[in-house]
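quick one, two chains, predict together pls
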Amino acid sequence: MNDSMSIPHLIMNASLIVQLVMLLLLAASIASWIIIFQRSIALRRAEKAYQDFEDRFWSGVDLNELYRELPAEQESHGAEHVFRSGFREFNRLMPKTQSTDAVLEGVQRGQRVALSREEDRLQLHLTFLATVASASPYIGLFGTVWGIMGSFQSLSMAQQATLSTVAPWIAEALVATAMGLFAAIPAVIFYNRLSAHAGRLLGKYENFAEEFHAILHRNLQGRSEREAS
Amino acid sequence: MAKRERRVGYGWPVLLAIGVHVAALMLTLIKWPESESDPTSSSVVQATLVRAETATDQPQQTEDSTPPASQSEEEDAPEPEESAPSEASEEPEPDSEAETTDSAVEEAKAEAQRLQEEAQRAAEQRAEAEQQRQEEAEAERQRQEEAEAERQRQEEAEAERKRQAEAEAERKRQEEAEAEKKRQEEAEAEKKRQEEAEAEKKRQEEAEAERKRQQELAERAAQANNSSLDSMISDEEQSIANAKQASEAANGFKNLVRRYVEQSWNVPSNASSELRAIVRIQLLPTGELVNATIIQSSGNSAFDHSVINAVEKAAPFRAMRELDASVKGQFREFNLDFNPEDIR
């Protein structure tokens, strides 16, 4: 009893399809946990980096200096990326046109592109978590149904339908559902948590972009008035 | 900063994820035996324990009793052997020295005494061991006897219980049989009574029929013999008699219908005793209700309604079938009046 009903024993004795389902669920579970750890670490670091950058931005440092200090375009992330793309657009458009509207429009467009890239990066692989969360219970249920079908087929062969002939099959089939839930529950919880975190971070980036835009606008307004006088 | 952020690779997450799964698997493996030890200690093991005690009780005791005995024998046996070599080693020494023969003799005597004492001690120990063995054997015998006596007592008790149960069962059987007999007898008695009643009814009916025949015969004779006046008088008498009979039968059937209707009549609670409703009831020859209408309302529509309901509920009136064909004609349509006082 002790040996035949243990979970590894049940898994080893399961039919091939049920074993394949279990393998699939195990792979999905491992992959989802990898994504959970990777994303939570990445998001925490991104938040920390954003706070550092914001502190530096509002510390009164010269924007040109800040732009020069920051690393090259491909390596910058988050709010730095937004700042860099906006400021580069501003620097490139300033010599070419006198119209402040055209400059601000270009800055806005560059920031928008950077923001959409950041959004993409923050929500990387989160859809996979959602897929695991919604699909793995069904996959596990499939394994269970298949196993119970097998149990009934074996029941038709048996002369007497005792509990001991059916119980191992059903227990083994239920392991598949258990594994599906084991994969799905963390995926659901962490999908909600991580996507909320990413959305919050993205909102911060957008706020920063607006503030930066307001600074540039103020700057240009002052300059044009000076030129007019 | 940015460089560090970019290095969030998949190495650590992979390790952590695999670690989580291994930990989960370990948890399932560790928890299984603990959780399964509880159910095994519940009902199944108790049953086996009782058996184990009773089955291994005597062998264990015999084992317990025999080892000490063999040990004591073993202990007893080696002692003389140990003393014999010591004698052998000690005895040659005085022989080889051969100078202090007296002392040797004394020593020999002392040793002989020692040997005797040891032999006595050994004998005493053996005797004690045997006594112990015997005592233990007796104790065991007593235990066995007691156990057997108890078993016998239990068996006797069980046998007595069985006997009592059987006796009770037999008593019950007898009682049931008697009760059935009584029931059958009562049923037979009732049948007889009913049969007698029917026979009496038949007798009475026959008697009445004979009387009628005699009357008719007499009337016919009277008609044939007497004058037209007499015949007219007798005709009148006959018609009066027929009317009486018809009215009696009609009253009987009416009363029956009234009783049926009143049984299924829910008189409204607010109906006063002064209310009175007359209902016209139309019946088929089989007794089924065709129509029931109020021909004189009581003035209280709820009361009228209840009366109609009661008539509809009481229908069909099967007693109609048993009436004579001549009387039936009267009851195709008749009136009944209802008054709450009839019931209260």
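The beta strands of chain B are 277-283, 289-296, 333-338.
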